[in-house]
Amino acid sequence: MQTLITTHNLTKRFGDFTAVDAISFEVGKGEIFGFLGANGAGKTTAMRMLTGLSHPTSGEASVAGFDVYRQPEMIKRHIGYMSQKFSLYEDLTILENLRFFGGVYGLSRRQIKEKSAALVEQLGLEEVAKKLTGSLPLGWKQKLAFSLALFHDPQIVFLDEPTGGVDPITRRQFWEMIYAAADRGVTVFVTTHYMDEAEYCDRISIMVDGKIAALDSPAGIKTKLGVQSMNDAFYQLARGAQRSE
Amino acid sequence: MKPFLAFVKKEIYHILRDRRTLLILFGMPIIQVLIFGYAVTNEFRGASIAVLDQAQDELSTDLQRHLVASGHFAIIEQVDNVSDIESAFQKGKIKMAVVIPPDFSQDFYHRKKAVVQVLSDGSDPNTASTLLNYVTNMVNQFQVRKSQAPPLPLQINIESRLVYNPELKSVYMFVPGVTALILMLVSAMMTALTLAKEKELGTMELLLVSPLHPFLIIVGKVTPYVFLALINAIFILALGVFVFGVPIKGSLLLLLGLCLLFILTALALGILISTKTDTQQAAMLTSLMMLMMPTMLLSGFIFPVESMPRLLQWISTIIPAKYFIILLKDVMLKGSGIELILWEVMVLGIMTLFFLVVSLKNFKIRLA
After folding, report:
1. What is the pLDDT of residues A156-183, one digit of tens each?
2. Residue B160 pLDDT exceeds 80
């Protein structure tokens, strides 16, 4: 299997606080990789380093075959990103948002037009395509934001708590979209608080105090810790944490 | 280039769809110019005064007529005793009172020395001193007219002429000042606000993980504001020229060039503020406190720098608007060419570079 994300002893320090402490892992093509941890465990910092938003203090990492130190610009071209905060412009219409992000990623006018039409049809947004994004219900916005993160056909998509505040049905639909993307060969790197979502991932890593405390398939982790549910597994690992928010 | 254009287009949508932005951009300049042009003025027409005429003779009546004839004063009350003056002041009916003593003409014609008492409302010192000046001048005129004495054989007359603003019109002061204020508002505050908005909404993250270079993000965000600010500058200057009759004696091209320079200074300040603040509210407050107040109070717009305490004079030397107002006045009123204003242009240029370098540094630090 082709690996798309590799880290080796990746570390980030802020002063004498070590936010991310020598983490090492690999993520393969088309894999759904769950990134779990309590608040303040270092998930977001790790993700920021992989997306080129933050420079590592030490260690190595490559994303989509590009080095995080030397080729952050190349990485940015090949990844998609969606954050926990709703990340579309609410005062732009759906089509204008698509045109803007298409333009930012250097797609041609024709590509943008074709892809927009396909996306609007696929999400069933024909009626509201020319309405301001702010008027959409939250669930639709989240689905739209996810589609937008995939708009320029990235190899990897980073999702930072994408389903925060969304109802269970929309969450389910959202995960169906994630599966569909993974089936097309897109690698999905997702952080989440929901333990049921962790079960949907191919493999998960649980971070505690900046270190990776466990890394395996959900079933593997449960077996290793001798617990019944992902909740118990998380609780057992995170209980020993020294730091919290 | 294409990503950049997409960016500018998106920014224009933001501006056109936000009522508050539109109001600040287009409502503010008109309101400011009209307020400062019409309402805030140091000239007085028909200030209300009371007269206590204890003489009641030809000369005293003549003096009253002389005061009213100037148009500066309107006698709204003839009072009978001093206590009425007091109560008129307290009710706020009058700005000034003139007391003519009983033996006014006696003293004037026979003792060659008469006294007129003028009382003015010191709770409003600017008005009081302006009115006192007017009255002093007019009493002097009156005295010259009334004294039939032949002129002294030897005398020095002062013949004064106020160059560059012969009629001492306050609007000549306000147009450059308002221009500075509006450009500060549009360029600095709006830039700080729009950048803070992206941070607040979380869209800044999205832009930063995109292949757009951070520098391009900033340039894309401020480009529409450069044009808007320039349009505003032209608009204010046009109002000044066509409505208030302020002259533009120097080169128009030079004037616009200077406006552009100051816009860049203000933009750099706005970017700097946005790197230090994370919410629109913080950005707004910081801009108001750090930029608007000093531009109003310490730039020489309302209070002359020369009459400030030494400490404030020092502070005023780091206020960009001070230099911009000097430049505008030089070019508009005196018709100075670029060779005469190089120093101020250089100061503004260096300030702009300094703010830009500091804010780009800050922006990078935030990324790391």
Report:
1. 999 988 888 788 888 889 999 999 999 9
2. no
CB count, 10 Å around CB of B243? Answer: 14
Q: Which two tokens stand for residue B247?
A: 């002259």
User: In chain A, what residues touch B364 (CB-CB under 8 Å)?
Assistant: none
Quick: pLDDT tens for B191-248. Answer: 999 999 988 888 888 888 888 888 888 889 999 999 999 999 999 999 889 988 888 9
Question: Across the interface, which of A76, A89, A90 has its CB nearest the CB of B210?
Answer: A76
DSSP per-residue string spanning B116-181: -EEEE-TTSHHHHHHHHHHHHHHHHHHHHHH--PPPPSS--------SS-TT--THHHHHHHHHHH
Name the residue among B2, B208, B213 with its Cβ closest to that of A53: B208
Query: What pLDDT is stored for residue B149 in this prediction?
Result: 61
- Interfacial residues of B (vs A; Cβ cutoff 8 Å): 2-3, 5-7, 9-10, 13-14, 17-18, 201-203, 205-213, 367-368
- Residue position matching structure tokens 């990746």: A10
Cβ separation B205–A53 shorter than 8 A: yes
CB contact under 8 A, A103 and B201: no
Domain boundaries, chain B: 9-40+169-367, 47-146
CATH topology of domain A3-238: Rossmann fold (3.40.50)
ipTM of the complex: 0.86
Q: In the CATH hierarchy, which fold is given to the domain comprising B47-146?
A: abc type-2 transporter like fold (3.40.1710)
Which of chain A's residues have a Cβ under 8 Å away from the Cβ of B211?
A: 73, 76-77, 104-106
DSSP class of residue B54? Answer: S
Banded model confidence at residue A245, pLDDT cuts 50, 70, 90: very low
